[in-house]
Specification:
A 5-stranded mixed β-sheet has the order 1-2-5-3-4, with helices on both faces. The chain has helices at residues 28-38, 49-52, 59-65, 83-101, 115-127, 132-142, 150-157; strands at residues 7-11, 14-19, 42-45, 69-72, 105-109. A hairpin with a 2-residue loop joins strand 1 and strand 2. The chain has one domain (7-161): Protein tyrosine phosphatase superfamily (Protein-Tyrosine Phosphatase, Chain A), CATH 3.90.190. The model is unreliable at 160-171 (pLDDT under 50). The protein is globular. It has 171 residues and is α/β, with parallel strands linked by helices.
Length: 171
């Protein structure tokens, strides 16, 4: 298992970070310290409640104690959609874009910090006005495993998944 760390990419005037779930490798306190030292203003958990229970059940309370906003948009592993994501993305995106615009930091995590975190980070980059292809290339330079399925990529590209001529882009 890889060493815990936050991969980051510039977007919207601030930084977007991706990381595995704190505590996944058994060192919740050390991972939480790394998250806190990265200083996010907002942490978005893409992991399910069952996954959080594997070692990060205290994360929402610990972030709140540090004055960091936390949002939960659970999506099943390797999936690209959920009711929570469908209902909550617009609000989380607006909050995150506001934070980025003021030079802030937004951190996404799932279990491994790749698929679901990557799709959310890419979608936020697209929501900030970047072209999906260029944003994906930048994101994968920072976190090569970002986005694991075609469905995640399609969700992340959002409304921008069609070329100017109306044809669907091939990724």
């Amino acid at each position: 298992m890889e060493r815990f760390g936050v991969a980051e990419v510039k977007a919207g005037g601030g930084l977007i970070g991706l990381c595995p779930m704190p505590g996944r490798a058994g060192d919740y306190a050390g991972d939480l310290a790394a998250v806190l030292s990265w200083a996010p203003g907002l942490v978005v958990t893409m992991a399910t409640a069952a996954e959080l229970a594997l070692g990060a059940a205290a994360l929402p309370a610990d972030l709140a104690a540090a004055g960091i906003a936390w949002r939960h948009l659970p999506v099943a592993d390797f999936a690209a959609e959920s009711i929570a994501l469908g209902d909550g993305w617009a609000g989380v995106s607006a909050e995150a874009r506001g934070m980025l615009a003021s030079g802030g930091r937004v951190l996404f995590h799932c279990l491994g910090g790749c698929g679901r975190s990557g799709m959310a980070a890419l979608r936020l980059m697209v929501d900030c006005g970047e072209a999906p292809e260029a944003a994906l290339a930048r994101l994968r330079r920072a976190r090569p495993c970002a986005i694991e399925t075609d469905e995640q990529l399609r969700w992340a590209a959002g409304a921008s998944s069609r070329a100017a001529d109306g044809r669907t882009r091939s990724w």
